[in-house]
């Protein structure tokens, strides 16, 4: 969660006549030139509406300051509000796996809001400073590409980690492996919660009828949406494979318990007749046969050995020992 005592930070960049320069955030609302302005507010929400420029429509401002968001894209008047989720720059105490960025997009003006620093913004800012972002369509396309590019290796690592678990299922510690698989499944579920809506939001953005979304922008947006779709499918596969591995480990543990129970049963069955014989001859009553003969102990011992071998042979004939 963002620090409630930390005031929001604002930064504004202006691309005009091919030159990028930083301007005071207060000038963004009054700018009427032909350039492209990007205002980013980090940690917004503590002060409400005053954290944002006065030129924003109320619907857009409310969407940017909402406490809980999910990826979406909506057309509002001559602009669009798009929410996406990506990796945080630093780990947060929030239960959500990914942090949000809310963006109000107009042709020549962008207002973005984050409550926690987003890792992908560094690439977007670098593209802005290089003069590669000329309108709102370029900005959203660059943001989508940056977020999906950072998430792709992370999703692939989940699949590789699950491959390692599958390879070691016969030799690894079952209990440690179950915990590892459960953690991977939890990560896949947490990622897919936002990766799939990211795909839908970008696909919706690519279909908006605005002139500032060029043909190339739509291609880049669809490409990022396809990448999110592939990641969502991979995460779904990881989740299903993890569930299957969990079932296999449960069956493997049941087999181990069965084998151990069988071994205990075999040992108990061998000693059951021996216990009967020794108990019968060990009664503290008169009339025990051969009680006064020196060879009686070794005779009873030999009979017990023969009984044990006979029972063991019976188990071998029935192939119980093969299990």
Description:
There is one protein chain. Helix 3 packs parallel to helix 5 and helix 5 packs antiparallel against helix 6. The two termini are 56 Å apart. The radius of gyration is 35 Å and the shape is rod-shaped. The N terminus is likely disordered. The protein is built from 6 helices and 7 strands; from the N terminus they run E-E-E-H-E-E-E-E-H-H-H-H-H. The protein has 323 residues and is of the alpha+beta class. The chain has a 7-stranded mixed β-sheet, sandwiched between helices.
Main attributes?
53% helix; disordered N terminus; rod-shaped; 323 residues
User: How helix-rich are the residues, as a percent range?
Assistant: 40-55%
**Strand-and-helix sequence, N→C?**
EEEHEEEEHHHHH
Outline type: rod-shaped
- How many helical elements? 6
Strand order of the largest sheet: 2-1-3-7-6-5-4
Mean pLDDT: 84
Specify Rg, calculated over alpha carbons.
35 Å
Pairing-aware structural class of the strands and helices? alpha+beta
Largest sheet data: 7 strands, mixed
Low-confidence stretches: 1-5
Beta-strand proportion: 5-15%
Q: Count the strands?
A: 7
């Amino acid at each position: 969660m963002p620090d409630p005592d930390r005031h929001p930070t604002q930064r504004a960049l202006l691309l005009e006549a091919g030159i990028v320069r930083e301007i005071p955030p207060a000038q963004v609302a009054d700018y009427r030139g032909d350039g492209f302005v990007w205002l980013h507010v980090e940690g917004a929400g503590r002060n409400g509406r005053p954290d944002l420029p006065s030129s924003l429509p109320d619907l857009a401002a409310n969407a940017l300051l909402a406490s809980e968001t999910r990826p979406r894209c909506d057309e509002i008047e001559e602009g669009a509000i798009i929410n996406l989720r990506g990796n945080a720059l630093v780990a947060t105490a929030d239960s959500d796996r990914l942090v949000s960025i809310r963006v109000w997009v107009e042709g020549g003006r962008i207002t973005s809001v984050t409550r926690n620093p987003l890792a992908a913004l560094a690439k977007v800012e670098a593209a802005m400073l290089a003069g590669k972002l000329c309108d709102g369509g370029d900005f959203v396309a660059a943001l989508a590409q940056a977020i999906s590019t950072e998430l792709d290796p992370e999703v692939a690592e989940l699949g590789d980690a699950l491959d390692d678990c599958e390879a070691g299922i016969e030799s690894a510690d079952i209990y440690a492996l179950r915990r590892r698989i459960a953690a991977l499944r939890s990560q896949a579920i947490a990622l897919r919660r936002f990766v799939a809506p990211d795909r839908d939001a970008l696909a919706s953005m690519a279909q908006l009828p605005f002139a500032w979304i060029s043909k190339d922008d739509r291609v880049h947006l669809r490409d990022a949406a396809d990448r999110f779709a592939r990641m969502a499918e991979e995460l779904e596969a990881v989740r299903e494979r993890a569930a299957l591995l969990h079932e296999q480990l449960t069956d493997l543990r049941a087999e181990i318990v069965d084998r151990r129970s069988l071994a205990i049963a075999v040992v108990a069955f061998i000693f059951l007749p021996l216990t009967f014989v020794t108990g019968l001859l060990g009664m503290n009553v008169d009339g025990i046969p051969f009680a006064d003969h020196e060879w009686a102990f070794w005779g009873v011992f030999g009979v017990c050995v023969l009984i044990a071998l006979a029972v063991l042979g019976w188990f071998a004939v029935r192939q119980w020992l093969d299990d």
